[in-house]
């Protein structure tokens, strides 16, 4: 009887493990496919800020949180986009730095990765002023404006959180830059909230605080 009882326990434990695993995978997939808040990006390039849109080509702006793990994929897609655009776009990546955080907090591997992309200018957005000007709420939010300052595209350039690969957002921007053909004007943005108090980015913020406090 004892072997039979042990076998029953093993079967029950195995069934429980399968259930827990499936539940975890389901939650992960739900998280990865859940987009962040979309931006109501200005239809015309916002005046009064330090950035100037190019008058002889399109201008791209990406807003990024320096501690958002999802943004690594967005930067990877931006690198591919810039290679495909072949000099047809001026690009900025704005890294938001809260005003109450010390200098250097924003200097992460994400900022270094963005700085290494040919044709991209990295800008520190103190206090999130420019993020607010462009009405961005989610890290990875990307906007494309034409030479006249008109909004052509606003959205994300990944297919899910932290996933690189072919996606509608990057394809739409590349098409606009290389063929002038109208296509989708937006796509879901997959990233961490830029301004939220509670987010997966928060752990990075707190670690940055602790590092600078010691």
Number of strand elements? 6
Helix and strand run: HEHEHEHEEHEH
**For the terminal residues, how far apart are their CA atoms?**
61 Å
What's the tally of helices? 6
Regions with pLDDT < 50 over 5+ consecutive residues?
13-32, 201-214
Mean pLDDT, rounded to whole units? 80
Strand neighbour order, sheet with most strands: 3-2-1-4-5-6
Helix content: 25-40%
**What class, by secondary structure content?**
alpha/beta
Shape: globular
Radius of gyration: 21 Å
The main pleated sheet reads as:
6 strands, mixed
Q: How large is the share of residues in beta strands? A: 15-25%
Can you give a write-up of this model?
The chain is of the alpha/beta class and 214 residues long. 38% of the residues lie in helices and 16% in strands. The protein has six helices and six strands. The protein has a six-stranded mixed beta sheet with strand order 3-2-1-4-5-6. α2 runs parallel beside α5. The C terminus is likely disordered.
